[in-house]
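Side project, low priority. Logging it here so it doesn't get lost.
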Amino acid sequence: MNRYPNPAAQEILNQLPDPAYLKDSAGVYIYANSAYAQFLGKQQNQIVGSRAADLFPPETVEQLLKNEEGVRETGQSVRFPIAGTYKSGRQVWMDVHLSRIQPGGVTGEAGAVLGILRDITAIRNAQTELVYRETFENTVLSIATDFVNKNAREMEMGFGEVLSVVSGLVEAERGYLLVYNRTTKKLECKNAWSSGGIETYQDRFSIEPDAIGPYWWAQMTSFAHLEISDVEVLEEDKTPEREFFRSIDARAVLSYPIHTQYETLGALIFTQRSTGDEKAGERYQLVHMVALLVANALVRAEFENLLSEYSLNLEKRVRERTNDLDTAYQTLKQTQTQLLQAGKMASIGQLAAGVAHEINNPVGFVKSNLHTLQRYTKTLREALFAFQSLDGGNQVFTEYGLSEIIADLGDLVRESIDGTRRVESIVDNLRTFSRMDQGEQTLANVNDLIRTTLKVIWNELKYKAEVIQEYGEVPEIYCHADRLNQVFVNLLVNAVQSIRDHGEIRIHTGVDDENVMIEISDTGQGMEPEVRDRVFEPFFTTKDVGKGTGLGLSIVYDIVAAHGGEISVESEPGHGTLFVISLPAKRSL
């Protein structure tokens, strides 16, 4: 009995785009297709006769052999991921599918195993990056919310915890918070943090900015971040910087200015004792956001210290100035939260666009290969039917069930092509929703914006509400499309959260005089009059602690107002809620 695959089987396996191989009962390769040889960086004849230990990294051999033996014993197909470092030197994740081949089939060998591999490295990396970014953004949001609810002293005491969290997320070994003292004209280390018990430069120290380095201080005062992957390769004119960072045992440095609109208040410095990694550049926007939060906290602390001084010496003056200070304080808090929300939406947009791009490339390959496979299937079908007309052809067709396989194969290819079209549609929706505002208004139709928003958040709506869409004929308007998308997201999510079991959300658009009208109503719990009257106030929320910030409808109000529009609300307990938005239908704002 021939232990090697017959020529027809070899030809079929060799046409597969994925790496595939056959092993005998002893675990010795008896066949490998061209894709498998290319994956391992070897010739096909070099693989036949070898074993897994000859080709794979040690960390994957045991897992691979264990699963192959299980398939031989049980006859049950298995699917599992493996990871290892292969010919390119990079870490690769592969999805492995193993099946037992019956004697007399593809090969005469009893206990032969067929393995098919697929590279899933890009998917695993995208999942890891998605989890990282979600964790980072949630942490920043938590820090910002925490700062809003703390006084100046509590914020200063919390700086160390912030340094610890941020340093961990950027994989730094040390973190320093330096604050510029206008009186002494020195930078004072307010907090220092280190990982793994490494000693810090000093718990508290004071230093002139030029002692760290004129170039570094010039970057900080121009509100620019500084990233040094290796201080040892700094140019000669940056000798002070090299000497200072050497003195704190730093090899790689990431530094961000803490500043207001007009002046530098200090700097955040993160260091490593080894050269920097390539991820740091991708994270600077999020860390810069933390620097802005610290700046706002320092400004708040300065306001509170001034207020305290006035209260000790001039009670009357304090009473007269309290309203002005409170107004400035509330404005600062609102500005801070809007900056945070805008930064978060920008990060989400960048992430969505990045994920869409990463998905689009492999989908393109799959779609192209499927169309090729469809042509090959047609040719193979014609060849097999020609073979059927030969002597003994019908017997072979009956024995192997080729008629059913041929019929199913065409359907499978068509369904797979339809699947890639659905994935492409999802990618298009992600790209549309993540289109970032770059300071310019564009013509957009609110009906299209609402449809795009519904596609993105549909999974959150479909289980609790029936969404009725009544779109009227409306003109295109000049607007910031991404901001209006945020308005619709906030209103629709609020609507579905107000519904207890299952209800209805109704969306209606139309034109009233020279205004585009959007109505979003729900059959939720409704609101008491005292809640309805305060619904657009910043930080007002009826949700439990930790479940709402009170910013969603405040941001909706601000965005609508910025477009020259108006928003109103009608609601009664037990009778749901109706939001009405009016946007001017003019050519520009």
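Brief comment: Residues 197-202 have pLDDT under 50 and may be disordered.
Revisit when time allows.
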